[in-house]
Amino acid sequence: MNLVERVQAILLRPKATWPVIEGEPDDIAGLYKNYLVYLAGVSSVAAFIGFSLIGTGMMGIHFRVPILAGLANMVVGFVLTLVMIYVLALVANALAPSFGGQKDMGKAFKLVAYGATAGLLGGVFNLLPALSMLGLLAALYSIYLLYTGVPVMMKVPEGKALGFTAVLIVCGIVASIVVMTVGSLFSGGAGMMMGGASAPAGDVSIKVPGSEVTINTAQLEEAAKKMEEASKQMEAAQAKGDSEAAGKALGEMMGAAMGSGQGGQPFAPDALQAYVPAKLAGMDRTAIEARSDSAMGMTFSSVTSEFRNDAGRVEVKVQDIGAMPALMMAMGAWAQSTVSRETQDEVEKVYKKDGVAFKEEYRKDGSSAEMSMMLANGVLIEVSGDNVNIDGVRAAMNALDVKGLSSLQRQK
Predict the structure, then answer these.
(1) How do residues 275-297 score in pLDDT, each as one tens digit?
(2) Backbone angles phi, psi at 242, to 5 degrees
(3) What tens digit of pLDDT does each residue of 7-41 get?
(4) Alpha-carbon distance 138 to 179, whole Å?
(5) Which residues are listed as membrane-spanning (predicted)?
(6) Do 77 and 51 meet the contact criterion of CB atoms below 8 Å apart?
(7) How far apart are CA 369 and CA 184, in angstroms?
(8) Cα R_g (the chain), whole angstroms
(9) Are 119 and 138 in contact (CB under 8 A)?
(10) pTM of whole model > 0.85?
(11) Contacts of 402 (CB under 8 A, 6+ apart)
């Protein structure tokens, strides 16, 4: 395996790369030795240089993590990152049956290891602490990589891949908190001091082409309180041996961590299904599934439909991800870029039209094509075609009642 080629492939062509990874031998030790140690090393070394040698400043005050503490952070962070990937792989493997997938530790490890590529490489922005927030965007793209790999690696049905990914994200957040907490022990508490700084009052808006996510700082405080209360309830239930109450409290805590409901109530599956026609671009609808899945205090609604004619097949997926702003940011991370990539066989484009972001991926021979659109209300539309060229997929997207889907109003 060529490291550079694999990194480029998983970042630029994840859907085409996951089947290749799935067919490779399961070799956890080899992945650590030939892949993860390099990516984790980049992130750890960049953080040391940025925070100990260059330093960061705010309001005229310049701060550097002491050299010895920085070196300790670098080593500990490197080791804990490698450990965290294995722990998340264990979690992914354990979760698979609950979402209709198959347990396979080797494939679970490959899912997490390669899915983490963008986030690990994003650590290079720590070279300049002022740009460290860009690492967050890279981490959001890693969530998308995991989402595309879940159906291939863990055999989770596509309709449940979103829920699986969301639960895994929560576990990743918890693991990251552990890493930062342990790391702070070696930096004289500096990390915790920085993390404890008061947030500015008011709302913070993050704009993604075609949508805008507003994060209310008061809601963040409320979510933290809910997590604390749910944690106490879970501990009390466990002490009493009440597993049902403990499970309910755990679900509430996970939901609070993901911001469940902060964007409003999820749309009902039948509300989404109403905008999926019986015919689409000259094709008859041959199958449709509308579903709502709940996991760990989070609810996801989706509609998947299939259209066929004698020449080809088109699949339309309509998913509601707007009830959780954090998930909406993650799934729409691609929309923050403008991309134009072309090879001898394939084309990929991310572009904006009338303020909405579109993503297209297709083969020039017309054998397959995909197109995605995220609406401002948190509805994600994905159209893919087999033996259908990109013009056919565009026609199918244009034939959908996008205006109707955009008009859906989410209840608070």
Answers:
(1) 999 998 889 999 999 988 765 45
(2) -90, 90
(3) 888 988 888 999 999 999 888 888 888 888 888 88
(4) 18
(5) 35-55, 67-91, 111-128, 135-154, 166-186
(6) no
(7) 47
(8) 22
(9) yes
(10) no
(11) 373, 375, 381
